[in-house]
Amino acid sequence: MCSPFRKKDGSERFVMLRITCEDEVQVGLVEDVTAVTLERRRIEHERDYDVLTDLYNRRAFDARAKKLFRMPEKLGHAALLMMDMDNLKQINDTFGHDWGDRYINLAGQCFAQTLPQNTIALVCREMNSLCCSMATTDGTKSVRC
Fold it and tell me: pTM, whole model, 2 decimals?
């Protein structure tokens, strides 16, 4: 069992408690697993999120959406939004792909900041557009585009 806790300085630590029983004697061992847990979280984030927009990638969104669609009462509202990145090719060709990547990053940030709480969103970058899908997990909120 891995449990998080916060130290007084605000840093988060993770510990694992293992209990073994032998001949009516219980022995407990508390192990600091912070480094392993943070590394696992970092790897999972790289696996599940788009590097430029920090929104779910297709694989992670599909897994989360399938889980939600199995429980339609928790789904709430859903929407599909297709955004064209005006002049992305021209930005890439004129200023380089670093500036084009920054353009995509800022568009993803703007998009993510306007989403209602409890919303999952996907970004699919293809050519000069972003395809964003979203679903809310709170039936009382609507998705505004």
Answer: 0.63
